[in-house]
């Protein structure tokens, strides 16, 4: 079965053709990242305008003369403007071509990126066996799920505030690094000392499977203050409960004007922050595997591209006799191939007229 998949949940415009859920015939991604890098974050209206321009050329390029059996599209979660572009395009094509349409949860797509076979080196990327613990770690989400089958899965816990990727972006901005922050922090961390700062590991010992990384961001701000780089007195909005409170974006914009970090301090901070986040992710995931007596762990999302995360996960999962699965790096960030894979294995056809975008979509 060949599926044309469309992904427009955030700032990427992607289309792919996926065969039988595991083989990618073609996968094209058009990104507006350079525009968002100028502003230090994604502006929804800018992303949507770019996607209007990209969507048809991307689909034309990926489909060529290929015959397809169905259309898959991300319906949420994500930015409503971006989602609508993909959803309305998919609905139009489904009607015009008389093809079934399969709505897909973007978050599950990150898990199913692990089901895509890497043809150049297929051995490490074979299908994860059930049951498994799924960890989604991306810019907007950090979630743990227990999968017993393609249709039987249970959400165990997730982020209460900043997701891991979101925290990395915000911390990078505090440190004066470019957007997106995750890759920049990883690069800097290679030249830093992860033991230089003992940053908090939020909720690492809690009995649940929830995550919270906003406190880590606050710890960075306070550490910067110790170095006389930012004056809390000049930023009352940084004080919890202040009547002057501003949005995180406004705070970080102001902090950028005040920072004067030396290079090694930045590197050490990056290494220490990365270590703190990795420690929390590993301990929570390992605890879930033990509790539910599961021998397989599947990880997906943009942060799963972090090599330090991979290396440390491999060390820890060996201790608990678990098999570890990571997607091929090019499928860690938002892409249509993972949407096509999800559609094949979950295959829930819905009449095109009943497909709607849902930016708040989570897990069933």
What attributes does this structure have?
364 residues, alpha/beta, Nucleotidyltransferase, domain 5, 2 domains, five-stranded mixed β-sheet, 11 helices, 41% helix
Task: Please tell me about this protein's structure.
By secondary structure, the chain is α/β, with parallel strands linked by helices. It folds into 2 domains: 2-116 and 330-354, ATPase, nucleotide binding domain (Nucleotidyltransferase, domain 5), CATH 3.30.420.40; 132-326, ATPase, nucleotide binding domain (Nucleotidyltransferase, domain 5). 41% of the residues lie in helices and 17% in strands. It contains 11 helices and 10 strands. The strands form 2 sheets. Strands 3-2-1-4-5 form a 5-stranded mixed sheet, sandwiched between helices. It has a 5-stranded mixed sheet with strand order 8-7-6-9-10, sandwiched between helices. Helix 3 (80-97) links the parallel strand 4 and strand 5 (101-105). Helix 9 packs parallel to helix 10 (307-319). The longest helix is centred in the C-terminal third of the chain and has 29 residues, at 263-291. Residues 229-234 and 237-245 have low confidence and may be disordered.
Mean pLDDT over all positions? 89
Could you say what the CATH topology of the largest domain is called? Nucleotidyltransferase, domain 5
Assembly annotation: single chain
Percent helix: 40-55%
Number of helices: 11
Shape: globular
Distance between the termini: 25 Å
CATH homologous superfamily assignment of the largest domain? ATPase, nucleotide binding domain
The count of DSSP E runs of length 2 or more, i.e. the number of strands, is 10
SSE string, helices as H and strands as E? EEEHHEHEHEEEHHHHHEHEH
Strand arrangement in the largest pleated sheet: 3-2-1-4-5
CATH top level label of the largest domain: Alpha Beta
């Amino acid at each position: 079965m060949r599926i044309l998949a469309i992904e427009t949940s955030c700032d990427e415009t992607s289309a792919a053709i996926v065969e039988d859920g595991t083989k990618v015939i073609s996968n094209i991604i058009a990104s507006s990242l350079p525009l968002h890098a100028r502003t230090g974050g994604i502006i929804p209206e800018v992303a949507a305008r770019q996607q209007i321009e990209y969507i048809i050329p991307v689909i034309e390029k990926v489909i060529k003369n290929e015959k397809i059996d169905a259309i898959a599209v991300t319906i949420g979660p994500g930015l409503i403007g971006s989602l609508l572009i993909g959803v309305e395009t998919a609905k139009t094509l489904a009607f015009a071509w008389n093809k079934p349409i399969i709505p897909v949860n973007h978050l599950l797509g990150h898990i199913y990126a692990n089901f895509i076979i890497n043809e150049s080196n297929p051995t490490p990327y074979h299908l994860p066996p059930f049951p498994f613990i799924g960890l989604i770690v991306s810019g907007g989400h950090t979630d743990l799920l227990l999968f017993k089958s393609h249709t039987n899965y249970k959400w165990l816990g997730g982020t209460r505030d900043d997701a891991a990727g979101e925290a990395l972006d915000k911390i990078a901005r505090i440190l004066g690094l470019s957007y997106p922050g995750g890759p920049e922090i990883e690069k800097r961390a290679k030249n830093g000392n992860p033991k230089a700062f003992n940053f908090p590991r939020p909720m690492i010992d809690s009995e649940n499977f929830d995550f919270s990384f906003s406190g880590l961001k606050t710890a960075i701000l306070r550490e910067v203050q110790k170095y006389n780089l930012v004056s809390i007195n000049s930023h009352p909005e940084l004080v919890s409960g202040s009547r002057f409170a501003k949005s995180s974006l406004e705070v970080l914009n102001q902090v950028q004007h005040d920072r004067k970090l030396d290079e090694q301090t930045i590197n050490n901070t990056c290494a220490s922050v990365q270590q703190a986040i990795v420690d929390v992710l590993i301990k929570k995931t390992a605890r879930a595997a033990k509790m539910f007596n599961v021998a397989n762990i599947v990880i997906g999302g943009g942060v799963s591209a972090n090599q330090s995360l991979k290396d440390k996960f491999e060390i820890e999962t060996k201790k608990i006799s678990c098999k570890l699965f990571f997607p091929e790096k090019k499928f860690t960030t938002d892409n249509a191939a993972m949407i096509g894979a999800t559609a094949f294995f979950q295959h829930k056809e819905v009449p095109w007229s009943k497909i709607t975008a849902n930016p708040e979509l989570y897990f069933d």
